[in-house]
Structures are given as C-alpha cells and as structure tokens.
Amino acid sequence: MTTIIDRRTRRSELVTTTTAEEFSADHLLRLLKGDVFAVRVTGLVDAVALDGLRERLVGRDDHGPLATDPQFRRIGQAFSETRDGAESTYFDHAAGHRRDLRARAAPYPYPSDTVRILLDEAWPSGATLLSWHSRKFFVGVARYQQAGVDLEPHTDNLHRNLPDDDLGIRRQLSVNVYLDVPDAGGELEIWDAYPSEDDYRGLSGERVWGIDRADVGEPALTVRPTIGDAIFIDPRRVHAVAPSADRPRVTVGVFIGVRGGDEPLAVWS
Questions:
Q1: Helix or strand or coil: residue 210?
Q2: What pTM was estimated for this model as a whole?
Q3: Architecture of domain 12-268 in this structure
Q4: Which residues form the Fe2OG dioxygenase domain (predicted)?
C-alpha cells in the first residue's frame, strides 16, 4: 500500500492529546480533515469509576463470539454483525443490551454514555442515539480481544456498518474507551491510507474481512493506549490492533455518524 505521509511530519504530530474538559468539536473536525490521525482524551473515566468498571468488566468470561468472526469476543451486538433480514433481531435486542451493560457497570456510568455526553456538549448541535424507522440502535459494545488474537488491518465503512437506507450520515468516526490493556501488545496502529471500498475489497481478496499485514507495510502511527483513556480515529483509514501477548484487551467501542455541522451527531455500535 502506498504511503504518502510527509516524512518531515513527526509521528507525535499525528495524534492530539486533550482532556474531557478541553475536548471540543475542533478535535473532531481535525480528524475529519485528516490533520491528525488520532485524538486521545486522557482520563475520560475518572480513577474511582475506572476501578469500579474494571472490577465489573475486566476478567469476565461470559462474553459471546462475534458473529462475523468467533475468535473475537463481545458483550452486546454490533450492527455490522447482522446479515440480510436479521436487522429486526438486532433492534429487538438493542434496548436490552443497553440496559444490561448499564446494570453491569452500576453504580458507575457506562463508558458509551460518558462518550455520548462528551459529544453532546462538544458538538454545536449535540449528539443523539441513532435510530432507523423509529427504532433505536444499541451503542457501546464491550470488546474482549483475547491474547494472541490479531485485529488485522481493516477499515470501517458506513455502507458496511449501517442499513441501506439513507440516514443522512456522510462521515463516520469511531472511539474506543480502554478498560484494560495488556502489558505487551495491544497497540493501536494506523496507516496513512484511505482505500476506496472497491480497493479495500481487492486488498481483502478471499478473506472474510481485513487485509494481510504483509500487504500494507508498516503503520504511519502506533499508539499505546492507557486505561481510562478514549481514542478517537477516522476508521476509513486502515487501522489495526496488535495482538496481545498476555491478557485480553478490553474496550468499549462507539461509532459516530456526522451529518453536518448544524445537525446532531449520531452514535451506535
């Protein structure tokens, strides 16, 4: 894959670090414009809540397999797991998944709710839960990337991640909140590449999903997450997560849909 990053650009300039108090719409706009590859919000989950959430969510073994690739484990269900005709089942369970994860996190806020409040207060028109035909999406899938599992290079795309209907969303961002990170491995890797959907399918070939690491070269940016932080990216860029060498990497993931500056953001999983 061709890398066009200006070698004079220092890698430290490709990630912006801020706090929840300083986070603003400008951070999202910088991602959308491609000025930075990642925005890290340090300490999104405060120390007391982080201890409580880790006690409740880290080390669990009651997570289920991802429908599209059983080597990945999760609590909740992502819309991208659905197949034609199964959308109704996803929406039938969406509210139950939201309630279940909030109950597991209680009395602490579930991180996807914390993200939604952060976005609502930062974006001029706020942020809402995405809905389709008056049915609300689930948001905040808890992901358990087991030791040795490689989340290989891939992209996320609106046309793969949402129903076919035009929901008015023009761009997609994503954010993960980190509840546990292995001592070795688990780094977020980002390439300076936005393959078209046709190019991505060509690179994937006969694979179920993703791209062989041998076909993309070295990432332009590697970020080691810290527990309690949130990291926003533009998932149209090729990105991956290095395999953990010791224990599961535990995150809460949220997609963010952007319609326009004068319309609310929409969140889902």
A1: coil
A2: 0.93
A3: Sandwich (2.60)
A4: 135-258
